[in-house]
Amino acid sequence: xKTKYTVKDFNADFKTDADCLxxxxxxxxxxxxxxxxxxxDCFYPIRGRKCYCCSHCGYQISPTAGTIFHKSETPLKSxxxxxxxxxxxxxxxxxxxxxxxxxVTYKTAWRMAHQIRKLMQSxxxxxSGIVEADETYIGxxxxxxxxxxxxxxxxxxxVLERGGNVVAKVAENVKTQTLLPNIIAxxxxxxxxxxxxxxxxxxxxxxxxxxxxxxxAAREYVRGNVHTNSIEGFWSQLKRSINGTFHHVSKQxxxxxxxxxxxxxxxxxxxxxxxxxxxxxxxxxxx
Length: 287
Hints:
Layout (H helix, E strand, L loop, with lengths): L6 H7 L3 H12 L14 E3 L6 E3 L5 E2 L14 H13 L6 H8 L3 H14 L10 E9 L15 E8 L4 E6 L4 H11 L5 E4 L14 E4 L8 E2 L2 E2 L1 H18 L4 H16 L7 H7 L7
Parallel strand pairs: 4-7, 7-8
Antiparallel strand pairs: 1-2, 2-3, 4-5, 5-6, 9-10
């Protein structure tokens, strides 16, 4: 697949649902499928159905079984096009926009979007080198206190390796007992961790990290190589997208949206288009 994958490329690769089924089959069985009768590379597609049949014994398999497409009556081309739209959009795609683009009901579009987000979960090794740790708040505007402790907002905590990946998760609060375990679980001991002046980060040095901080309250945002600008840039993108594309995200589903933007951020330097990387997950991550 090309480095840049456009809608023209998509339409050339996926002309029909049969093309889409063949693609999913290849993703699920990259080395070819073996039948229970012991024969290999013996399956052919059954016309009009989302399954393949063994040419020797008649045993049938469904490439969509157990995937995010499982038991869905929505055409596979619509599913893959939704994956294409979501993976190609920097700011995400709302269920309302999917409804308009694909021609399904809002309920179906909403479910499709959340199923696709199940594939968008970043994993990998520990963060190292210079790491920035910070927290933000997501929620609707309302009168009263802003920032930390504001009513009706949900905390999101994160750590970001300079030039590398970011890890972010929804949290109940930003106390030490919440922030410290998250940093210990995702950052190598001995790494340099840059934070602001929040007291919750005080035990970092005793926990084996080189802790450097800036004081935003004193309007100190950068001191040499010490700053949290990178992770704050990630927070800005996340907030702009939620406010501009989704408008409102409930606490119940917020982590799914956070995962989507973390996934997209961590693949920003990938040589392969995000759609191709996302499609590869059909082989090893079932819904």
